[in-house]
Amino acid sequence: MDKFIAIVGTNSDNSTNRKLLQYMQKHYANQAEIELMEIKGLPMFNKPADKQVPAAVTDMAAKIEAADGVIISTPEYDHSAPAVLMNALEWLSFHIHPFVDKPVMIIGASYGSLGTSRAQAHLRQILDSPELRARIMPSSEFLLGHSLQAFDETGNLVDEQKTAKLDGLFADFETFVEITKRLKNAHAATAQEVRDLDWDNL
Amino acid sequence: MLKLVGIAGSVADQSYNRMLLKFIATHFSDLIDLEILDIDDVPMFNQSDDQTDGDAVQFLNRKITQADGVIIATPEHNHTITASLKSVIEWLSFKIHPLSGKPLMIVGASYYDQGSSRAQLNLRQILESPGVDAIVMPGNEFLLGDVKTAFDDHNNLKDDRTVGFLKETIGKFTQFVKVINSMNDKADEGWKKEDLESHGTVDTTIKGLDMHADDWVEQAAEKTHAAEGSDYVKLDRGVLTVDQLNWFLNSMPMELTYADDNNQFLYYNHTMDVKDMLAGRTPGSAGNPMADCHPKAAIPHVQQVVHMLRTGKTDLFKLPVPGMGPDKYIMHYYQAMHDDQGGYRGINEFVLDLMPIVKYYLEHTGQVLAKDPNAKADAVSGASSHAAAEKAKPDDVSGASADTEKPAEKPATDEVSGASASADVETKPAAPKDVDSVSGASAKD
Ligand SMILES: Cc1cc2nc3c(=O)[nH]c(=O)nc-3n(C[C@H](O)[C@H](O)[C@H](O)COP(=O)(O)O)c2cc1C
Ligand SMILES: Cc1cc2nc3c(=O)[nH]c(=O)nc-3n(C[C@H](O)[C@H](O)[C@H](O)COP(=O)(O)O)c2cc1C
């Protein structure tokens, strides 16, 4: 069974994005083992000269590295991903590179009707940058709008159409993970390239 | 000169973007007055732990609100802006929106030859989202690539063409700021809501009294069992009796007036008879709503000034009020007062004659006043040259004096800018008399 890390893209206590991931964890328990990962409490990324990464970040990196894939559920703040998620990704690309070639599924929930479309595009751009180089599942989007009304008391998605769409995308993601495992020819070279890429020596 | 604030999107000890802002601030100080704001103490944005009222966010809020425009210098991390900068923007788009309508310019430096191009594009999109709503200057992209080789040992940009382009960009931005702000001034009608009749109440308002009564002070004291005479009052920082407090305030070398955030005139230091005061006050007017102290025609101007102070557009509104002859230079200062949380709590108006201070200085440093042939019309009132200042007429705003004393001698000079011949001067070192012109003051004293 695939093991996925599900990153909650916020530090908010009552997050509908966390709810969405908790729903998936329960709903797909027969298909995959999903472990939620919180990003709250990391220090503000300050590009430390000694290149030291906090222990919490190395723990996270190890889990990501060991996982078959990563699901990120992002809120949308000011038409983009939240600072706290950007911060985690800065740490997770600072002299460590757990995301290289890692299959990633991006989803998101927002209060309004658009369902984080812009934040997801932003996150895609970030994960595609030279030090992250994740394998983002292409041509797929799960946008959960009106997220405050999207769940019932037991934490299930109310809208059947949305549920069906998520089921389909999740199955696709599992396939994508399998395919990506076969796209390993350039992995060693890419990993080396990323390790060599040192902003300090540009 | 335009007052701008600059934010470098980095909390690292060393940042080329901060260096770039410092270069702009020093190198173009003839074009703009740029203050660089620190974001190191701003916490990570968290929707469920609102720290909008904390010092770090309020500091930025205040500085940005008061500024004519903003420059952001952005690094690029992972093809986007830094989390530290994004977090600042999130705080400034959550419960408060100081960037709304603010003219803003983006610059950026990066190690790579792309020079933060992606981060800048991204930042533009973020700043234009409805919660932020800044007015970002279009075009004129200033990208400083390969930044590690861009500065010399003195932190100056090496390449003259780059400096030239930067100067051109800054020049365009100053034009942009003026255009946007003149649009904003027309749009901002908020001042009309300033209620100078004090119909509302604030938490300190003494309720149930006639604010217009001549004995309002006595009534209010009785109602609140106010401390008086030898009663002690604990202050920040000290303890005084009410008597001591009065002696202290009444010996201040200026006339002090307290108007609260409900626009009610609560206090003045009663040291002189109304006819001897620079801005006349009578014992009966304490407690009055501010409207009582001003002629009707002056009300809109007073409203504008109060609104500027309440909204933080400025913390200090300065108004020269000529008309008492060449031997006096009367200034009315309207200083916004704030509580510990930075909330607006009213106006401290202080009125004084600057002439004795100027004369003392000249005498003790061996200098004389001379006319500045290059002086611009607003040289004197420069610091307060906000839109409302241009509209406000001096004795309108200081109207408390208008209905009492000295309305007779209306000066013919431009009242607002105070640019009368006698004022339009600058001190120039003259031949020292018997004292060294610089150290003279201390040598004599
Ligand atoms: C500073 C701030 C900015 C926001 N900007 C947006 C936005 O641009 N678009 C949007 O759909 N919701 C925006 N929101 C509202 C919600 O927080 C957002 O819909 C979010 O995705 C909800 O996720 P959560 O339930 O996991 O916290 C913003 C909220 C905050 C606090
Ligand atoms: C985690 C991380 C990611 C970075 N990503 C980029 C990038 O995508 N593009 C780039 O030009 N520089 C990148 N850099 C290098 C510099 O930090 C960047 O050029 C920055 O703009 C320099 O400005 P500063 O000195 O003000 O921090 C990255 C650095 C770090 C530590």
User: Any idea what the radius of gyration of chain B is?
Assistant: 25 Å
The number of helical segments of chain A is 6
CATH topology of the largest domain in chain B: Rossmann fold
Can you tell me the residue ranges of chain A where pLDDT is under 50 for at least 5 consecutive residues?
none
Number of structural domains of chain A: 1
Organism (chain A): Lactiplantibacillus fabifermentans DSM 21115
GO molecular function (chain A): FMN binding; oxidoreductase activity
Protein name (chain A): Oxidoreductase
Domain NADPH-dependent FMN reductase-like (chain A): 3-147
Topology, element by element:
The complex is a heterodimer of chains A (202) and B (445).
Chain A lengths: L1 E7 L7 H12 L4 E6 L17 H12 L2 E6 L8 H9 L11 E7 L7 H11 L7 E2 L5 E3 L15 H23 L4 H10 L6
Chain B lengths: L1 E7 L7 H12 L4 E6 L17 H12 L2 E6 L8 H9 L11 E7 L7 H11 L7 E2 L5 E3 L15 H28 L28 H9 L7 E4 L2 E4 H9 L4 E6 L4 E4 L30 H12 L5 E5 L9 E9 L5 E10 L1 H11 L2 E4 L15 H5 L2 H4 L27 E4 L11 H5 L1
Parallel strand pairs in B: 1-2, 1-3, 3-4, 4-5, 4-6
Antiparallel strand pairs in B: 7-8, 9-10, 9-13, 11-12, 12-13, 14-15
Bound molecules: flavin mononucleotide (2 copies).
Describe this structure in words.
The complex is a heterodimer of chains A (202) and B (445). In chain A, strand 3 (69-74), helix 3 (83-91) and strand 4 form a beta-alpha-beta unit. The model of chain A has no long low-confidence stretch (mean pLDDT 95). In chain A, strands 1, 2, 3, 4, 5 and 6 form a six-stranded parallel beta sheet that branches. Chain A has helices at residues 16-27, 55-66, 83-91, 117-127, 160-182, 187-196, and strands at residues 2-8, 32-37, 69-74, 103-109, 135-136, 142-144. Chain A has 202 residues and is an alpha/beta fold. The model of chain B is unreliable at 378-445 (pLDDT under 50). Chain B is globular, with a radius of gyration of 25 Å. Helices cover 29% and strands 18% of the residues of chain B. Chain B folds into three domains: 2-183, Flavodoxin domain (Rossmann fold, 3-Layer(aba) Sandwich); 197-293, PAS domain (Beta-Lactamase), CATH 3.30.450; 319-430, no CATH class. Chain B contains twelve helices and 15 strands. The chains are: A alpha/beta (202), B alpha/beta (445). The interface between A and B is large, with 35 and 36 residues. One flavin mononucleotide (FMN) sits between chains B (10, 12, 15-17, 75-79, 109-112, 114, 116) and A (47, 90, 93-94, 129, 131, 199). One flavin mononucleotide sits between chains B (10, 12, 15-17, 75-79, 109-112, 114, 116) and A (47, 90, 93-94, 129, 131, 199).
